[in-house]
Write a sequence for this structure.
């Protein structure tokens, strides 16, 4: 299951760099949950031909990620944004305990807003 999710995410990141046929096969297989036989019947080739095309496309996606690291970078940024949100929440809570500075409150709200907009 983890491989399926990983391939789906890699397809989102790098799918436009594949041929339309490779992209379609991966979409059928991972996103639409079609079997190799169903894909083969729909496109008029053998099941083995579909499997080979999918395996080649998977290798290309994996290689692109190894070279470019977009998914790794995305995950790193997401983790950083989660930490920013957590820190802003802790600052806000501490501010409430220590006298509620409107300026600090406004800044933590702004920090959270920016982090949310960057994560979308």
């Amino acid at each position: 299951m983890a491989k399926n999710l990983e391939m789906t995410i890699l397809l989102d990141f790098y799918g436009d760099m594949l041929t339309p046929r490779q992209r379609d096969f991966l979409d059928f297989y991972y996103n639409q949950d079609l079997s190799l036989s169903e894909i083969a019947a729909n496109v008029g080739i053998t099941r083995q031909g579909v499997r080979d095309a999918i395996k080649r496309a998977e290798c290309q996606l994996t290689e692109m990620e190894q070279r470019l690291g977009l998914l790794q970078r995305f995950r790193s940024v997401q983790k950083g944004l989660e930490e920013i949100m957590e820190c802003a929440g802790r600052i806000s809570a501490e501010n409430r305990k220590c006298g509620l500075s409107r300026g600090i409150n406004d800044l933590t709200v702004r920090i959270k807003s920016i982090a949310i907009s960057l994560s979308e």
Notes: The mean pLDDT is 92. Residues 39 and 119 are 35 Å apart (CA to CA). Helices lie at 2-14, 20-31, 36-43, 47-68, 70-97, 102-119.
